[in-house]
Amino acid sequence: MSNYKVTKLSNGIRIVSERIEHVNSFSLGFWFNVGSRDEKRQTNGISHLIEHMFFKGTKTRSARRLSDDIESLGGYLNAFTSKEHTCFYGRGMDRYLEKTFVVLADMVQNSVFDAKELKKEARVVIDELHDIEDSPEELIFDKFETNLLKGTALSMPIIGTENNVADFSRNDLIDYIKANYNVNNFCVIASGAVEHDKLVSIAEKYLTGIKSISTKERKKYKKQPTSNLFTYKDINQAHLIVGGTTFGYDRKERAISNVISNILGEGSSSRLFQTLREKNGIAYQINSFMNSFYDISSFGVYLSTNEASLKKANKLILEEFDSMKSKMVMINELKRAKEYIKAHVQMSLESTSNRMMRMGHSLLYFKKIKDLEESMNEIDSVTREEILDYSQVLFDSTNVSSA
Fold it and tell me: Which terminal CB of the chain, N or C, has fewer other CB atoms within 10 Å?
Protein backbone atom coordinates (compact mmCIF):
# COMPACT_ATOMS: atom_id res chain seq x y z
CA MET A 1 0.00 0.00 0.00
CA SER A 2 2.66 2.51 -1.05
CA ASN A 3 1.06 3.77 -4.26
CA TYR A 4 -0.93 6.58 -2.68
CA LYS A 5 -0.91 10.38 -2.87
CA VAL A 6 -1.93 12.96 -0.29
CA THR A 7 -3.02 16.53 -0.96
CA LYS A 8 -4.20 19.16 1.51
CA LEU A 9 -6.68 21.58 -0.03
CA SER A 10 -6.47 25.31 0.60
CA ASN A 11 -9.35 24.97 3.07
CA GLY A 12 -7.47 22.28 5.05
CA ILE A 13 -9.33 19.17 3.86
CA ARG A 14 -7.05 16.19 3.24
CA ILE A 15 -7.48 14.16 0.06
CA VAL A 16 -5.87 10.71 -0.08
CA SER A 17 -6.05 8.26 -2.95
CA GLU A 18 -4.31 5.21 -4.29
CA ARG A 19 -4.56 4.05 -7.88
CA ILE A 20 -4.92 0.34 -8.59
CA GLU A 21 -4.27 -0.33 -12.25
CA HIS A 22 -6.03 -3.68 -12.60
CA VAL A 23 -9.50 -2.62 -11.40
CA ASN A 24 -12.25 -0.61 -13.10
CA SER A 25 -14.10 0.52 -9.97
CA PHE A 26 -13.43 2.76 -6.98
CA SER A 27 -14.30 3.02 -3.31
CA LEU A 28 -14.72 6.56 -2.03
CA GLY A 29 -15.06 7.52 1.63
CA PHE A 30 -15.89 10.80 3.38
CA TRP A 31 -14.49 10.43 6.91
CA PHE A 32 -15.26 12.53 10.00
CA ASN A 33 -13.20 11.97 13.12
CA VAL A 34 -16.41 12.14 15.16
CA GLY A 35 -18.22 9.32 16.95
CA SER A 36 -20.12 8.39 20.08
CA ARG A 37 -16.97 8.95 22.15
CA ASP A 38 -17.41 12.69 21.52
CA GLU A 39 -20.93 12.73 22.96
CA LYS A 40 -22.25 13.35 26.44
CA ARG A 41 -24.99 11.40 28.20
CA GLN A 42 -27.64 13.82 27.00
CA THR A 43 -26.38 13.68 23.40
CA ASN A 44 -25.59 9.95 23.28
CA GLY A 45 -26.77 8.56 19.94
CA ILE A 46 -26.75 11.87 18.06
CA SER A 47 -23.79 10.97 15.79
CA HIS A 48 -25.53 7.80 14.64
CA LEU A 49 -28.82 9.64 14.07
CA ILE A 50 -26.99 12.34 12.08
CA GLU A 51 -25.49 9.58 9.92
CA HIS A 52 -29.03 8.36 9.14
CA MET A 53 -30.33 11.86 8.47
CA PHE A 54 -27.63 12.64 5.90
CA PHE A 55 -29.46 10.13 3.68
CA LYS A 56 -32.90 11.74 4.13
CA GLY A 57 -32.66 14.57 1.62
CA THR A 58 -30.76 17.74 0.71
CA LYS A 59 -31.79 21.11 -0.67
CA THR A 60 -31.83 19.68 -4.21
CA ARG A 61 -32.20 15.89 -3.76
CA SER A 62 -34.87 13.84 -2.04
CA ALA A 63 -33.93 10.72 -0.10
CA ARG A 64 -35.12 8.64 -3.07
CA ARG A 65 -33.04 10.66 -5.54
CA LEU A 66 -29.88 10.37 -3.40
CA SER A 67 -29.95 6.61 -3.71
CA ASP A 68 -31.30 6.54 -7.27
CA ASP A 69 -28.59 8.88 -8.56
CA ILE A 70 -26.00 6.29 -7.53
CA GLU A 71 -27.85 2.99 -7.94
CA SER A 72 -28.93 3.92 -11.47
CA LEU A 73 -25.20 3.97 -12.29
CA GLY A 74 -24.65 0.51 -10.79
CA GLY A 75 -23.05 1.83 -7.59
CA TYR A 76 -24.15 2.04 -3.98
CA LEU A 77 -23.97 4.34 -0.96
CA ASN A 78 -23.62 3.39 2.68
CA ALA A 79 -22.27 4.69 5.98
CA PHE A 80 -21.26 3.66 9.48
CA THR A 81 -20.81 5.31 12.84
CA SER A 82 -18.27 3.96 15.31
CA LYS A 83 -17.21 5.20 18.72
CA GLU A 84 -14.52 7.40 17.15
CA HIS A 85 -15.44 7.92 13.47
CA THR A 86 -18.27 8.43 11.02
CA CYS A 87 -17.79 7.42 7.39
CA PHE A 88 -20.02 7.94 4.35
CA TYR A 89 -18.88 5.91 1.37
CA GLY A 90 -19.76 4.91 -2.14
CA ARG A 91 -18.65 2.39 -4.74
CA GLY A 92 -18.96 2.59 -8.49
CA MET A 93 -17.34 2.28 -11.86
CA ASP A 94 -14.45 4.63 -12.58
CA ARG A 95 -16.41 6.75 -15.07
CA TYR A 96 -18.86 7.70 -12.33
CA LEU A 97 -16.37 8.94 -9.73
CA GLU A 98 -17.39 12.59 -10.04
CA LYS A 99 -21.11 11.83 -9.92
CA THR A 100 -20.65 9.74 -6.76
CA PHE A 101 -18.49 12.46 -5.21
CA VAL A 102 -21.13 15.09 -5.96
CA VAL A 103 -23.86 13.09 -4.21
CA LEU A 104 -21.72 12.45 -1.10
CA ALA A 105 -20.68 16.12 -1.00
CA ASP A 106 -24.31 17.18 -1.26
CA MET A 107 -25.27 14.88 1.62
CA VAL A 108 -22.61 16.11 4.06
CA GLN A 109 -23.00 19.80 3.21
CA ASN A 110 -26.62 20.39 2.24
CA SER A 111 -28.82 17.98 4.19
CA VAL A 112 -32.01 19.72 5.31
CA PHE A 113 -32.90 17.56 8.35
CA ASP A 114 -36.60 17.90 7.71
CA ALA A 115 -38.46 17.69 11.04
CA LYS A 116 -41.02 15.16 9.73
CA GLU A 117 -38.26 12.98 8.30
CA LEU A 118 -36.40 13.23 11.59
CA LYS A 119 -39.38 11.88 13.53
CA LYS A 120 -39.74 8.99 11.08
CA GLU A 121 -36.03 8.18 11.12
CA ALA A 122 -35.93 8.32 14.91
CA ARG A 123 -38.52 5.53 14.92
CA VAL A 124 -36.33 3.55 12.47
CA VAL A 125 -33.31 3.93 14.77
CA ILE A 126 -35.39 2.91 17.80
CA ASP A 127 -36.43 -0.21 15.86
CA GLU A 128 -32.74 -0.84 15.20
CA LEU A 129 -32.08 -0.45 18.93
CA HIS A 130 -34.83 -2.97 19.71
CA ASP A 131 -33.32 -5.38 17.17
CA ILE A 132 -30.05 -5.23 19.10
CA GLU A 133 -31.92 -5.85 22.35
CA ASP A 134 -33.44 -8.95 20.72
CA SER A 135 -30.04 -10.18 19.46
CA PRO A 136 -28.05 -11.36 22.48
CA GLU A 137 -24.97 -12.08 20.35
CA GLU A 138 -24.89 -8.33 19.53
CA LEU A 139 -26.22 -6.97 22.81
CA ILE A 140 -23.58 -8.67 24.94
CA PHE A 141 -20.77 -6.74 23.26
CA ASP A 142 -22.51 -3.44 24.09
CA LYS A 143 -23.10 -4.64 27.66
CA PHE A 144 -19.50 -5.81 28.05
CA GLU A 145 -17.98 -2.51 26.89
CA THR A 146 -20.52 -0.43 28.83
CA ASN A 147 -19.40 -2.26 31.97
CA LEU A 148 -15.69 -2.53 31.10
CA LEU A 149 -15.24 1.14 30.09
CA LYS A 150 -17.70 2.64 32.59
CA GLY A 151 -17.10 6.19 33.72
CA THR A 152 -15.94 7.24 30.24
CA ALA A 153 -17.65 8.24 27.00
CA LEU A 154 -16.39 5.01 25.42
CA SER A 155 -18.85 3.09 27.59
CA MET A 156 -21.86 4.62 25.85
CA PRO A 157 -23.54 2.60 23.05
CA ILE A 158 -23.14 4.02 19.55
CA ILE A 159 -26.88 3.82 18.88
CA GLY A 160 -27.70 5.82 22.00
CA THR A 161 -30.77 5.50 24.20
CA GLU A 162 -34.41 5.33 23.18
CA ASN A 163 -35.30 8.50 25.08
CA ASN A 164 -32.44 10.48 23.53
CA VAL A 165 -33.19 9.35 19.99
CA ALA A 166 -36.89 10.14 20.36
CA ASP A 167 -36.22 13.60 21.79
CA PHE A 168 -33.55 14.99 19.44
CA SER A 169 -34.79 18.02 17.51
CA ARG A 170 -33.70 19.39 14.14
CA ASN A 171 -31.85 22.19 15.94
CA ASP A 172 -30.03 19.67 18.15
CA LEU A 173 -28.62 17.96 15.06
CA ILE A 174 -27.68 21.21 13.32
CA ASP A 175 -25.99 22.61 16.44
CA TYR A 176 -24.05 19.38 16.96
CA ILE A 177 -22.81 19.38 13.37
CA LYS A 178 -21.71 23.01 13.64
CA ALA A 179 -19.73 22.21 16.78
CA ASN A 180 -18.16 18.93 15.68
CA TYR A 181 -18.11 18.38 11.90
CA ASN A 182 -15.40 20.57 10.36
CA VAL A 183 -12.43 20.58 7.98
CA ASN A 184 -10.00 19.79 10.79
CA ASN A 185 -11.52 16.36 11.40
CA PHE A 186 -12.61 15.60 7.84
CA CYS A 187 -10.82 13.75 5.05
CA VAL A 188 -11.60 12.12 1.71
CA ILE A 189 -10.13 8.69 0.97
CA ALA A 190 -10.34 6.79 -2.32
CA SER A 191 -8.96 3.51 -3.64
CA GLY A 192 -9.18 1.85 -7.03
CA ALA A 193 -9.44 3.28 -10.54
CA VAL A 194 -8.80 6.84 -9.35
CA GLU A 195 -6.71 9.65 -10.82
CA HIS A 196 -5.47 11.67 -7.85
CA ASP A 197 -5.26 15.04 -9.61
CA LYS A 198 -8.81 14.60 -10.91
CA LEU A 199 -10.05 13.73 -7.41
CA VAL A 200 -8.38 16.84 -5.98
CA SER A 201 -9.95 19.00 -8.70
CA ILE A 202 -13.40 17.55 -7.96
CA ALA A 203 -12.92 18.10 -4.20
CA GLU A 204 -11.89 21.72 -4.68
CA LYS A 205 -15.00 22.30 -6.79
CA TYR A 206 -17.58 20.64 -4.55
CA LEU A 207 -16.28 20.77 -0.95
CA THR A 208 -16.77 24.42 -0.09
CA GLY A 209 -19.45 24.26 2.61
CA ILE A 210 -17.60 22.50 5.45
CA LYS A 211 -16.55 25.05 8.06
CA SER A 212 -13.18 25.53 9.70
CA ILE A 213 -13.49 25.66 13.48
CA SER A 214 -11.25 24.63 16.36
CA THR A 215 -11.49 20.95 17.23
CA LYS A 216 -11.99 19.87 20.82
CA GLU A 217 -9.50 17.38 22.20
CA ARG A 218 -10.86 14.06 23.39
CA LYS A 219 -10.48 13.11 27.01
CA LYS A 220 -7.93 10.36 27.50
CA TYR A 221 -9.18 7.05 28.81
CA LYS A 222 -8.72 6.46 32.54
CA LYS A 223 -8.97 2.88 33.72
CA GLN A 224 -11.78 2.03 36.13
CA PRO A 225 -12.05 -0.89 38.59
CA THR A 226 -13.42 -4.07 37.01
CA SER A 227 -16.69 -5.77 37.90
CA ASN A 228 -18.80 -8.61 36.52
CA LEU A 229 -22.18 -8.04 34.91
CA PHE A 230 -25.19 -10.32 34.56
CA THR A 231 -28.24 -9.51 32.45
CA TYR A 232 -31.24 -11.84 32.41
CA LYS A 233 -32.90 -12.60 29.07
CA ASP A 234 -35.64 -15.15 28.43
CA ILE A 235 -33.71 -17.02 25.73
CA ASN A 236 -32.43 -20.56 25.16
CA GLN A 237 -28.69 -19.94 25.31
CA ALA A 238 -26.33 -18.26 27.74
CA HIS A 239 -23.94 -15.76 26.13
CA LEU A 240 -20.62 -14.99 27.80
CA ILE A 241 -17.71 -12.59 27.32
CA VAL A 242 -14.62 -12.78 29.52
CA GLY A 243 -11.94 -10.16 28.99
CA GLY A 244 -10.40 -6.82 29.89
CA THR A 245 -8.59 -3.79 28.51
CA THR A 246 -5.38 -3.68 26.51
CA PHE A 247 -3.29 -1.39 24.28
CA GLY A 248 -4.96 1.01 21.84
CA TYR A 249 -3.81 2.21 18.43
CA ASP A 250 -1.41 4.66 20.08
CA ARG A 251 0.86 1.82 21.19
CA LYS A 252 2.96 -0.43 18.96
CA GLU A 253 2.65 -3.10 21.67
CA ARG A 254 -0.92 -3.58 20.48
CA ALA A 255 0.59 -6.21 18.17
CA ILE A 256 1.32 -8.37 21.23
CA SER A 257 -2.37 -8.38 22.20
CA ASN A 258 -3.30 -9.12 18.61
CA VAL A 259 -1.10 -12.24 18.58
CA ILE A 260 -2.39 -13.36 21.99
CA SER A 261 -5.98 -12.97 20.77
CA ASN A 262 -5.21 -15.08 17.71
CA ILE A 263 -3.57 -17.85 19.71
CA LEU A 264 -6.54 -18.01 22.06
CA GLY A 265 -9.54 -17.86 19.78
CA GLU A 266 -9.00 -17.12 16.09
CA GLY A 267 -9.70 -20.04 13.80
CA SER A 268 -10.47 -23.71 14.31
CA SER A 269 -6.94 -24.55 15.45
CA SER A 270 -6.93 -21.94 18.23
CA ARG A 271 -6.65 -23.06 21.85
CA LEU A 272 -10.19 -22.25 22.94
CA PHE A 273 -11.86 -23.70 19.86
CA GLN A 274 -9.96 -26.93 20.41
CA THR A 275 -10.57 -26.99 24.17
CA LEU A 276 -14.22 -25.97 24.37
CA ARG A 277 -15.69 -27.26 21.13
CA GLU A 278 -13.50 -30.14 19.98
CA LYS A 279 -12.53 -31.67 23.33
CA ASN A 280 -15.55 -30.79 25.47
CA GLY A 281 -18.36 -30.19 22.96
CA ILE A 282 -19.50 -27.14 24.92
CA ALA A 283 -19.97 -24.35 22.40
CA TYR A 284 -20.85 -24.14 18.71
CA GLN A 285 -19.21 -20.72 18.38
CA ILE A 286 -16.31 -19.36 20.37
CA ASN A 287 -13.87 -16.67 19.37
CA SER A 288 -11.60 -14.01 20.77
CA PHE A 289 -11.77 -10.35 19.75
CA MET A 290 -9.99 -7.05 20.17
CA ASN A 291 -11.99 -3.88 19.60
CA SER A 292 -9.48 -1.05 19.37
CA PHE A 293 -9.76 2.68 19.99
CA TYR A 294 -7.03 5.31 19.99
CA ASP A 295 -5.80 4.91 23.56
CA ILE A 296 -7.40 1.64 24.74
CA SER A 297 -8.83 -1.61 23.39
CA SER A 298 -11.40 -4.00 24.74
CA PHE A 299 -10.18 -7.58 24.59
CA GLY A 300 -12.12 -10.74 25.28
CA VAL A 301 -13.43 -14.19 24.48
CA TYR A 302 -17.05 -14.66 23.40
CA LEU A 303 -19.15 -17.81 23.34
CA SER A 304 -22.72 -19.00 23.59
CA THR A 305 -23.71 -22.28 25.21
CA ASN A 306 -26.49 -23.86 27.27
CA GLU A 307 -26.90 -22.63 30.81
CA ALA A 308 -25.75 -25.94 32.33
CA SER A 309 -22.37 -25.67 30.56
CA LEU A 310 -21.75 -22.01 31.33
CA LYS A 311 -19.78 -22.51 34.55
CA LYS A 312 -17.52 -25.11 32.93
CA ALA A 313 -16.97 -22.91 29.87
CA ASN A 314 -15.94 -19.99 32.08
CA LYS A 315 -13.58 -22.25 34.02
CA LEU A 316 -11.90 -23.53 30.84
CA ILE A 317 -11.41 -20.00 29.54
CA LEU A 318 -9.78 -18.86 32.78
CA GLU A 319 -7.55 -21.93 32.73
CA GLU A 320 -6.29 -20.92 29.27
CA PHE A 321 -5.69 -17.40 30.57
CA ASP A 322 -3.63 -18.90 33.42
CA SER A 323 -1.73 -21.04 30.94
CA MET A 324 -0.80 -17.94 28.93
CA LYS A 325 0.52 -16.40 32.16
CA SER A 326 2.55 -19.40 33.29
CA LYS A 327 4.02 -20.99 30.15
CA MET A 328 5.60 -19.68 26.97
CA VAL A 329 3.60 -20.34 23.83
CA MET A 330 5.05 -22.99 21.55
CA ILE A 331 7.22 -21.86 18.64
CA ASN A 332 4.92 -23.45 16.05
CA GLU A 333 1.86 -21.94 17.74
CA LEU A 334 3.37 -18.46 17.55
CA LYS A 335 4.37 -18.96 13.92
CA ARG A 336 0.82 -20.09 13.02
CA ALA A 337 -0.71 -17.04 14.70
CA LYS A 338 1.61 -14.62 12.92
CA GLU A 339 0.99 -16.16 9.50
CA TYR A 340 -2.77 -16.20 10.14
CA ILE A 341 -2.84 -12.49 11.03
CA LYS A 342 -0.60 -11.39 8.17
CA ALA A 343 -2.43 -13.48 5.58
CA HIS A 344 -5.87 -12.21 6.63
CA VAL A 345 -4.69 -8.58 6.48
CA GLN A 346 -3.18 -9.08 3.04
CA MET A 347 -6.15 -11.03 1.66
CA SER A 348 -8.52 -8.33 2.89
CA LEU A 349 -6.59 -5.81 0.79
CA GLU A 350 -7.77 -7.48 -2.40
CA SER A 351 -10.93 -5.37 -1.89
CA THR A 352 -10.86 -1.65 -2.76
CA SER A 353 -13.38 -1.02 0.02
CA ASN A 354 -11.11 -2.61 2.62
CA ARG A 355 -8.14 -0.66 1.28
CA MET A 356 -10.08 2.59 1.55
CA MET A 357 -11.13 1.67 5.11
CA ARG A 358 -7.56 0.81 6.07
CA MET A 359 -6.27 4.15 4.76
CA GLY A 360 -9.03 6.05 6.55
CA HIS A 361 -8.30 4.40 9.89
CA SER A 362 -4.57 4.85 9.36
CA LEU A 363 -4.81 8.56 8.60
CA LEU A 364 -7.11 9.29 11.54
CA TYR A 365 -5.22 7.14 14.07
CA PHE A 366 -1.60 7.62 12.97
CA LYS A 367 -1.80 10.87 10.96
CA LYS A 368 -0.17 9.01 8.08
CA ILE A 369 -0.88 6.07 5.80
CA LYS A 370 0.77 3.25 7.67
CA ASP A 371 2.84 1.08 5.37
CA LEU A 372 1.72 -2.54 5.13
CA GLU A 373 5.30 -3.70 5.65
CA GLU A 374 5.46 -1.76 8.90
CA SER A 375 2.35 -3.55 10.16
CA MET A 376 3.71 -6.94 9.10
CA ASN A 377 7.02 -6.22 10.84
CA GLU A 378 5.21 -5.32 14.07
CA ILE A 379 3.51 -8.73 14.03
CA ASP A 380 6.73 -10.56 13.11
CA SER A 381 8.65 -8.84 15.90
CA VAL A 382 6.41 -10.20 18.69
CA THR A 383 8.37 -12.69 20.82
CA ARG A 384 7.38 -15.55 23.09
CA GLU A 385 8.93 -13.65 26.01
CA GLU A 386 6.80 -10.57 25.30
CA ILE A 387 3.65 -12.68 25.17
CA LEU A 388 4.47 -14.32 28.50
CA ASP A 389 5.34 -10.99 30.16
CA TYR A 390 2.29 -9.13 28.88
CA SER A 391 -0.05 -12.01 29.70
CA GLN A 392 0.73 -11.32 33.37
CA VAL A 393 -0.89 -7.89 32.92
CA LEU A 394 -3.65 -8.75 30.46
CA PHE A 395 -4.95 -11.74 32.42
CA ASP A 396 -4.38 -10.37 35.90
CA SER A 397 -7.51 -10.75 38.04
CA THR A 398 -7.72 -6.96 38.42
CA ASN A 399 -8.04 -6.59 34.63
CA VAL A 400 -10.42 -9.47 33.87
CA SER A 401 -14.20 -9.25 34.15
CA SER A 402 -17.15 -10.98 32.52
CA ALA A 403 -20.55 -10.20 31.11
Answer: N
